[in-house]
Amino acid sequence: MKKIIPILLLTILLIPTNVLALEETFIKCGSIEGLPPELPGLFRNVINLIKILAPVVLVIMGMIQFFQAVLSSDDDRISKATKKFIKKAVAALLIFFVISLTQILIGIIDKEISNDKCLSCFIKDESSCTKYTETIEESEKQDNNIFEKK
């Protein structure tokens, strides 16, 4: 039973979602075309997950070390654990705020230097993505042109 679950998940992921669709939507990012529309959202989710989980893990690790020191009743170990906990809490805050500040700055810079807002698409919000639709016949023609050039 345990072996069946990963196989089912893998087959669900490999099944094409728009088999019957005549048009496909893609994202254009600068000169790169043909990016799946789910990619910016996935990238944004990974960044936000790191932004939240890294500080939480650091604080929990620091708390565990601190509680172990308190349970040992050793004053030297408690002072060392307190210093380590403070360092981990500061690192957690830095991780959160550095990523947040980077997202804000990229949004500002991308508006100023770029017309396609590619960075904002991946970092800030999906509304700034440049989307285009391509019919299946067009994509097949492009594939054939690639093979003919070689």
Describe this structure as you would to a colleague:
It is a single chain. With 150 residues, the protein is mainly alpha-helical. It has one domain. The protein has five helices and three strands; from the N terminus they run H-E-E-H-H-H-E-H. It has helices at residues 4-14, 39-72, 75-113, 118-123, 136-149, and strands at 23-29, 32-35, 130-135. A three-stranded antiparallel β-sheet has the order 2-1-3. Helix 2 (39-72) packs antiparallel against helix 3. The longest helix has 39 residues, at 75-113. It is elongated, with a radius of gyration of 24 Å. The model has no long low-confidence stretch (mean pLDDT 75).
Count of alpha/pi helices: 5
Give, in spatial order, the strands making up the sheet with the most strands.
2-1-3
Series of H and E elements: HEEHHHEH
| Structural class by SSE content | mainly alpha
Overview features:
single chain; mainly alpha; 3-stranded antiparallel β-sheet; elongated
How do you describe this structure in short?
This protein is mainly alpha-helical and 150 residues long. Helix content is 69%, strand content 11%.
Topology:
Blueprint lengths: L3 H11 L8 E7 L2 E4 L3 H34 L2 H39 L4 H6 L6 E6 H14 L1
Antiparallel strand pairs: 1-2, 1-3
Helix pairs in contact: 2-3
